[in-house]
Amino acid sequence: MRILITGANGFIARNLSVHLKEMDGVSVLEFSRKNTQQELINMCSDADAVVHLAGINRPENDDEFSEGNHHLTEVICNALKSTGRKIPILFTSSIQAKLNNPYGSSKLAAENAINSYSKTTGSNVFIYRLPNVFGKWCKPNYNSVVATFCYNIVNNLEVNISDPNVELNLVYIDDVVKDFVSKIFPKEITNTTEVNPVYNIKLSELATLVRTFRDDNELLNIERVGDGLTRCLYSTYLSYKTPDMFSYKLMSHKDNRGVFVEMLKTKDSGQFSYFTAHPGVTRGGHYHHSKNEKFLVIKGDAKFKFRNIVTNESFELNTSGQTPEVVETIPGWSHDITNEGDEEMIVMLWANEIFDSKNPDTYSSSL
To answer: Which listed residue (103, 128, 237, 240) is catalytic?
Structure first.
C-alpha cells in the first residue's frame, strides 16, 4: 500500500512516516515544499491513501493562507478525482476553522473541498481539528509551548510565562499516529476524528514538571514516568537532549571491600544500586524491621547467610552470575553476602525504599 504524506518535513509527518515504514507492505510517498505541484499530482495518481498535513500557519501575508491551505487541498482533491479510484484522505485542519480569521477561514475552505470530494467520489475522508500536539521532533520556539519549554529547560534557558493559569489541551504524538494508522488501515468503519487521551495542564504546572525532570538527575530521582501525561512529557523532554547530554556521572563510594553506587531513586518504588566485593570479602551483617531488598549477582560466586534475630534459625544459599537468581532479604532476618570466587563479584540491588540516613532501618548483627 502506498501512502502519500504531504508536509513531509513537519513534526507530525516525520513521526507518522517512521511508523508507516515500520509496517510490512507499506511504502511512503513524501511531498514537501521542495516538490513541484506536478510532482504532487503524480504522487496522487500513485497513492492508495493520502494524509494531508501540509499547510501554512505563519505566512508573510494573508494571501498565503488561501494558497497553502485551500488551494493546495483543491489540487490534491482534483488529482485524486482524476484517478477514478476511491482514495481516502485524512486531513489535519485546525480548531481555528470555526473562527473568523484568515487562517481559520482557509482551513475551513480546505475542509469544504475535502467534503465535496467525498460526496463526489464516495471516498472516505477524515478531518481532524487537533488540539496542541506534542512529542519528539517538534520544533521549539515556533508554535508548541511544550517543545519550547522542553528545549529551553534542557539547555538551561529561561521560559517565559505570560499567564501561569492558562490551561493547555494536549495530545501526544504517538496517540495521534496510532489514531491516524487506524484510519488508514481500518479494522472497523468509524468516522471518529478525536484523538484520545486529551491531557490538561496549566502552563505553570508544565514548566514546573519539566524543570523537575532536569533537576532530578543530580539527586538520582525519577518521576512517575511509566504512564499518562508524565510519561509522554518525559519522553518529549529527553528528545531535546543533544548527544553530549546522553550520560551523567554517578558517585562511587569505595572502600577496601569494593564499591557501592546508587543509580536511581523512584517516588514510591524504592531505589536501584549495585556494589562489588573483592574475593573473600563479606558485605552486610545487619537486619531490617521493614525494609526489604532484592539481590542479583551479575558476576561471580556468592554465599548468602541468614539468621532469624529472635529464634536464631539460620539458612545459607549459594548463587552465581552464571545462573541468574534473585535473593530477597526478609524483615527480622540478619543477612550478609560473601564473595566465594576468585574474581571481583558484582551485585545488583533493589531496595523498596530510598535510604534515609536519619531513619535507615539498618541494624548491625552478627551471623
So the answer is: 103
Mean of the pLDDT values across residues 163-187? 95
103 counts as catalytic: yes
**Can you read off the three cell numbers belonging to residue 348?**
545488583
Question: For residue 242, is it left (φ>0), alpha (ψ between -120 and 50) or beta?
Answer: beta
Q: Are 336 and 280 in contact (CB under 8 A)?
A: no
In a 10 Å sphere around its CB, with 0-12 CB exposed, 13-18 middle and 19+ buried, how is residue 82 labelled? exposed
Residue 188 located in a structural domain: no
CB 142 within 8 A of CB 173: no
Do both 151 and 220 map to the same domain? yes
pLDDT of residue 189: 67
Residue 191, pLDDT above cutoff 80: no
Task: Give me the domain span that covers residue 262.
Answer: 252-364
Asked if 16 and 119 sit in the same domain, the reply is yes
Task: Write the pLDDT tens digit of every residue in 34-75.
Answer: 999 999 999 999 999 999 999 887 777 877 888 888 999 999
Question: Cell 501575508 sits at which residue?
Answer: 61
Q: Name the residue type at position 325.
A: E
Contact (CB, 8 A) for 73 and 112: no
Task: Convert the pLDDT of each residue in 306-343 to its tens digit.
Answer: 999 999 999 999 999 999 999 999 999 999 999 999 99
User: Do both 26 and 138 map to the same domain?
Assistant: no
Rounded-to-integer distance, Cα 234 and Cα 245, Å? 15
